[in-house]
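Minutes, project check-in
Item: structure for the 243-residue chain
Input as provided by the requester:
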Amino acid sequence: MEKHVVYAGTRNLYEQIVWAVKSLLSHTRIDHIWLLIEDDDFPYDMPDCVTVMNVHDFVERTFPPGSKNADTHFTKMVLARACYCELLPDVDRVLSLDVDTVVLDDISPLWDIDLTGKWFAACWESLSGYDPYNSGHYQNVGVCMFNLAKMREDDAQAQLVDLINRKHLWCVEQDALNILGQQRGLSTDIPVRFNENRACGYTDDPAIQHYVGYMDWETNPNLPRREYLKLYRDKPWSEIAYA
């Protein structure tokens, strides 16, 4: 199975995307990486396996000013995550990673997850206390394996876009995926070590560190596991194993 990964970010996050990709390719051979951004060009050198896509106009058109989440407190670019089915038409399975993630081990096992009949696999926020829909099992999609083939079969994108446009959601596309996917039994779990954060929990053997919930995660001197941020920031591409 080919390994596809996607990141989405606004201009102020471009540098962090580079760190994230370096950490990923330091541990796992990836066939293709997609960067969904708001410009035609990405201002940093990237390896040949990376494709840059300007999705700004697409997002503005799909989630217009009348949308209940047009002025989300998150960057609007996260809304592209509800539209992978259309934005990545030739991809049937893709791992979506938040920009504030650092990969610390081989994450190939994520592609072995059985997604038969499921839309996605993500980690349960067992510690966050955030469960506005009383599901008892709210999932964090900052690290999320999507089964785009099944989602296309179910016309999932149309359902997600409709919900996002007509109902205000605090965590926007993550809430929409929990309402339409998790609550309908269309998702499964991934182990905590692949999305370690203060909402999902920590182990002594992290594969992915996620700085979810810290708006100042780049500068906060008290950030848990801050030491991981330094590992790839200045590392040259020549020293990245799978670049």
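Outcome recorded: Residues 14-25 form the longest helix (12 residues).
No further action items on this chain.
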